[in-house]
Amino acid sequence: MASASNEKTVSKAYKYFMVFLCMLTQAIPYGIAQNIQPLFVHPLVNTFHFTLASYTLIFTFGAVAASIASPFIGKGLEKINFRVMYLIGIGLSAIAYVIFGISTKLPEFYIAAIICMIGSTFYSGQGVPWVINHWFPAKGRGAALGVAFCGGSIGNIFLQPATQAILKHFMTGNTKTGHLTSMAPFFIFAIALLVVGVIIAIFIRTPKKNEIVVSEQELKESKAAQEKAKAEEFQGWSGKQVLKMKWFWIFSLGFLIIGLGLASLNEDYAAFLDTKLSLTDVGLIGSMYGVGCLIGNVSGGILFDKFGTAKSMTYAGCMYVLSIAMMIFVSLQPYGSHVSKVAGIAYSIFCGLAVFSYMSGPAFMAKDLFGAKDQGVMLGYVGLAYAIGFAIGAPLFGIIKGKASFTVAWYFMMAFVIVGFVLLVISVIRIKKIQRVYIAKHQNQKAEVKED
């Protein structure tokens, strides 16, 4: 144990530097590992003559593998030096891009996607919260996490057009029928991910044992504030009690169906837009999506706090319906139409503004609807429902497109979004009604005890 004389207080500036490094992690290593993947779908489908449904299974397999690996990675962070874990993740994601670059068969692409997703969990899914939680154990943790995760949206603003420019250089023909002349883009991004990741790893770390990241006074004030908030917040039901609630299952079904519809907006949008616009225009739309997500992530917390779950999710649903309507409109236009570019930008803004519904939404809804008693368990249930829908959604979109057309596939996605949000909002209203009755009952019981 470090002696008092060896202890030193870390400056706020240094703590914010750690936040910046987390934000940079989200912007570039994570952005390369995850956010630009959809841009490769159409070029690879054309080059190797895959079906859209079969290739987009990379997102399903990757998501499932990362979900299984995540708890084990979390335990590993408790025992192994963070910098080592960070570099393992960077190495895995970089190797995955090399495998992408030498792959010609679907199973090889699936393996690369699984490795890439697991790798990103080391430094992003588990890594970023791990760093933030250590540097901000009390006040400011939520804001620091919010700023850090905004890095993904910021990265999209420049990574999306940069990726399309690189793909354009290594493609022949137009985006609709063109194919890759070289797999060099994968090696370029493997090097970029590895170099940036290693540079970040040189500086990013958790506090040393002799470093004080929060004063005793701040810790005391934070603890007092937390105890006060806990006394005032709705404690709610246990996980077992929630599982017996009919409206919980309707809520989960709604969120699962929403996942079916939203997967295509995140994973298949580029493959579709490539059939209607130039790579440069698709890159611009991806960049505007980053701007929309940046605004959506920041405004989402404000909407939830001010208007509650039902109204905020209704707003998100409307934004998604508008974004899919833009895609349907684009699907009816000829290749290269200027109105398609305008509608594509509108899609990206509408979709980005609603991104909070599945980013911060599950955490807020789990506590707001079911209480603080088992909020970790409830977050797992809520997140699982969406994850299942999302994992099925991308290949399902490809299957529908293969059997019919992009237009028909987008109509199906709109139906999923409408039905899903209707079920979710109705169940939210009913759960809040049950919650009010529950709170009133317990308040009356407390009042009776005091009188006795």
TrEMBL record:
Domain Major facilitator superfamily (MFS) profile: 15-432
Protein's membrane topology: Multi-pass membrane protein
Alphabetized NCBIfam families for the sequence: bile_salt_MFS
CC per GO annotation: plasma membrane
TM spans (from-to): 13-32, 52-72, 84-103, 109-132, 144-163, 183-204, 247-265, 285-304, 313-332, 344-366, 378-397, 409-429
MF-aspect GO terms: transmembrane transporter activity
Keywords annotated in UniProt: Membrane, Transmembrane, Transmembrane helix, Transport
InterPro entries cross-referenced by the UniProt entry: MFS, MFS_dom, MFS_trans_sf, Proton-linked_MCT
Subcellular compartments: Cell membrane
Species for this entry: Lactobacillus intestinalis
Family annotation (PANTHER family): EG:103B4.3 PROTEIN-RELATED (PTHR11360:SF284), MONOCARBOXYLATE TRANSPORTER (PTHR11360)
Stated name of the protein: MFS transporter
